[in-house]
Design goal:
The chain is an alpha+beta fold and 133 residues long. The chain has 2 helices and 6 strands.
Length: 133
């Protein structure tokens, strides 16, 4: 059986909009949209991972709230468990470091973006109102 890597996703809301980011050409799934986050390092909690990743990716400080659920996604090259958390941003200026693009979008607008397969489950839950803000 293939190892499953644990990956985090931050669901950050501001004024009724959710933060999403687009993968650049350095990463698998180039051009796909996803929720900010990343792979959990050894001896790191999901909350510590989100704080580290958001500091690296956007130069922002966050606090991590409720666990919103997880799903397992099998890709050709890797299997991941994506764990989503409600995450609160410090409100300071975002500086994107490593992604092609980022946007604040409404829940209704999420369907206009081509999300990575693992993130689609979270998108579906947001659109059905299972994750509320």
């Amino acid at each position: 059986m293939r190892k499953i890597f644990k990956v985090t996703a931050a669901i950050i809301e501001k004024d009724g909009r959710i933060l999403i980011e687009q993968r650049n050409s350095r990463y698998h799934l180039t051009g796909k949209w996803e929720f900010p986050g990343g792979k959990i390092e050894p001896d790191e909690t999901p909350e510590e991972c989100l704080a580290r990743e958001l500091k690296e990716e956007f130069a922002i400080e966050v606090s991590v709230g409720d666990f919103l659920g997880s799903n397992i996604q099998h890709y050709d090259h890797i299997s991941i468990e994506l764990m989503a958390y409600r995450t609160f941003w410090d409100g300071k200026r975002i500086n994107s470091n490593g992604h092609k693009n980022y946007k604040w979008v409404s829940i209704d607008e999420l369907s206009q973006y081509d999300f990575a397969p693992a993130d689609k489950t979270v998108v579906d839950r947001l659109r059905r109102g299972e994750i509320k803000f």
